[in-house]
## 1
Amino acid sequence: MFENLPAKVKIVEVGPRDGLQNEAQQVATADKVALIKAMADAGLANIEVTSFVSPKWIPQLADASEVARCLSELKLDSVKTSCLVPNLKGYERFKESKIDELALFMSATESHSKKNINKSIDEAISALKEVSVVAKADGYRIRCYLSVVFECPYEGKVPSKQVLQVTEKLVTIGVDEVSLGDTIGAATPVDVYKMVNDISKYVDKDRLALHFHDTRGTALANVIAGLSAGVTIFDASLGGLGGCPYAPGAAGNVATEDLVYMLKGMGIETGVDLEKLVDAGALAQKLLDKQLPSKYLRAALATREKAAGKQESCV
Ligand code: HMG
Ligand code: MG
């Protein structure tokens, strides 16, 4: 099982988008930018920084253009920034933003599609095709999330045939990379292994990403299944922040700290400095004024506190 592991993987940090879109409180633009800077300092090289969706639907990210403007002033040269784009209007905002890459998104079920973007699957494909045509002409590479590929909060288990049909359409409209979303965190490792093998008939494994929410505690096990099946791109969220506001009960993504710790222990390179990542996680907890779900973050901060306490008692 562990014979063919990759030497390195790409982590796409989605905390500033997937995480903050789901927070009840509004985070100030300057704080979002500081958090993204801390992520970059930790070595995260691919960061989804915001979303050009309707501010009426996701008010938490209404400051997307302002976040992008501040980031372009910061010139984070080591980072490829990306953002969500749902339609041509979002694409216009993206193009003005100087963000490096765009990510489309849609769902594998009609019910989640309606709730999330107010469109049927066919309508969603048409809207994404309009964007992909101009984005390709402008020279962009296109990532697309496919949500609820294992289980849908409205329709239950999703037949893999349905997922394959939508994936085929995404490839037809020119999507270069597909990120398979376990939006409500219901998959278990064998589901993941089988799904990757089925989907790889349409999308090469090096153009497949996995996006695990950790609602039921299976996200890291699912990463192992994805690695074994040959996937080398994983989405993760600092501290385990996140969720989809239109998927009730969905917890955050696999925590970046937990993922980096596990991969490091397995000898797989991520380019991320764990100590600096913990600094970023601590900043996120401070800004949001709450403890985040990442287990590694909790353990590392407890160790730091203990070390600081020992030092104090020696003085
Ligand atoms: P709609 O209301 O059906 O759209 O929303 P519309 O085209 O009829 O437009 C309505 C109004 O929105 C108009 O303004 C438009 O101009 C405006 P008005 O005339 O009423 O003043 N509008 C926009 N404004 C700014 N930027 C835009 C934009 N588009 C329209 N891009 C729409 C359709 C798709 C816009 C809406 O449903 C939407 O924004 N949905 C986004 C929902 C969302 O962001 N969900 C979370 C992200 S997906 C996710 O988390 C899953 C993922 O993590 C993977 C996984 O976990 O599975 C990616
Ligand atoms: Mg998500």
## 2
Amino acid sequence: MATILLLHGPNLNQLGKRDAAQYGSLSLPALEALVKKEAEARGHTVKAFQSNHEGALIDWLQKESEGARGIIVNPGALTHYSYALHDALLDTKLPAVEVHLSDIISRESWRTVSVTAPACIAQISGKKEHGYIEALETLAPHLQ
Ligand code: DQA
């Protein structure tokens, strides 16, 4: 059994109230519950955290990565400019999958750039909550 870290960045606590056409209609607690259920069905546990603050996300990653085997991360807008989060992900030495609910490639040009994705083994974008299930499948071979 592996522990997977599920990390959400700024504004994702507002899921359910944000633009459903981009982000789907699930609230963050509902999304976290879905990922936990799917992970448990695969024999894994999930530790989830969300913050609107870059430093809090990095503090949590540094603390929790010790006992974990993989990461699913939706950095929100930090995706597009946080080299600090990039480095924190890299420093965990854990396989991380970056997930975006919306299709960041088909939106504003500034969203098409991810500075955090190079610290991840894969990026999944535009599949709403289904992207998180795909992330579990992507992590699976790395959790053995
Ligand atoms: C997002 C995409 C980001 O560009 C945006 O800033 C978000 C959510 C997504 O899940 O589609 O807050 O990461």
## 3
Amino acid sequence: MRVAGSVRVPGDKSISHRALLLAALGDGRSRVTRILDSADVRSTAGVLRAMGVAVPALGPDVVVEGRGVRGLTAPSSDLDCGNSGTTTRLTAGIVAAQPFAARFVGDASLSRRPMARVARPLEAMGARVTYDGDAGRLPMTVHGGALQDLDWTSETSSAQVKSAIVLAGVAAGVEVTVREPHRSRDHTERMLAARGVDVWVHDRAVHVPAGARVAALDTAVPGDPSSAAFFAALGALASEGELRLPDVCLNPTRTGFFFALARMGARLTVDDERQEGGEDVGTVVVEGGRALRGTTVEGEEVPSMIDELPLLACVAACAEGETIVRGASELRVKESDRITAVVTALRAVGAEAEELPDGFVVYGRGPRAFAGNVVTHADHRLAMAFGVLGALPGSDVAVDDPACVDVSFPGFWRALAGAIA
Ligand code: S3P
């Protein structure tokens, strides 16, 4: 298989959510260009509209009139977060500081995901959180109000938890410190700092002082490294050719997959590296034709490639030797249980893999074809990871729900077909 050309992946999902939320909390008008127009980001736009923010239909150029940190209005309907954990958890932080209650609902996948991890710190700040049914699961109502300072040590390295607390602090005008075991993605910190908030980051702790205001800002959203990862993998698995992936966000808290792929033997380089809007951005160039070998991913590397671990498992099936992922039990509470789902799907297409409580082992047998039916559990990242395996010569992989890629990467299947020469 030969790859060729250039794939411009859509805007970063994490940054797109935050660009809308921070524009809504801002003083004045913010313009966001290259925002990701996907189902998840539409969920964030929808919940903001429900709370009185005039967010236009998503497009190449979105202008939002900010309402200030406590200027949202009580929603007259539920906040429908769809499939999006980021929408739910970050918005829960903001609602905790508003003088009203809001009920969060979501799809079947989101309704299974744990919410106590954000509810507990928000309750410690003075908010009240109630559940319709199972404790810690949607539907969940956040009863906002005046909050107090918080110094919180998070058990998980989760940017969503960290951001929920930080945004609650900013919206309430109180001081917060969040500590986490390993550093998770830091877009909230960078984006707040770019909007004039005096964010202090030291090692694995983030601090925001009381009385923060969020300035309006015009920003461009860089390409999503988690989306670029599928094409980096495709290029690395190709027997010849080169793929160029321009304008990808290269924030060091997000680039773990590219490093792991290089360690496995892939040839990856970065061209045109620059800073844009507080983020490192560049063109990732991947060349095919290299033999890949297994690797181990654990510890602080895990959060830097958390969403790419299903894809790593697929690449590992084409490498020589064992690939081990440990310390990634968070995968069990993503859009699906990604440990069970990826191992089951790998076996279904003819690869060898086994589950660990907090990760998996893949027994790679070098370049080869795969065939079988993949159950995605409507998980976009599983669909795309197995899409890459299905694109390999001689492979015949059927993904049960190809449309679920719209959560983060509408147009993925077309882009995948277009990258193969
Ligand atoms: C995200 C953080 C990660 C990631 C998710 C997006 C974010 O989740 O898996 O896709 O935008 O903050 P956790 O913070 O729960 O690890």
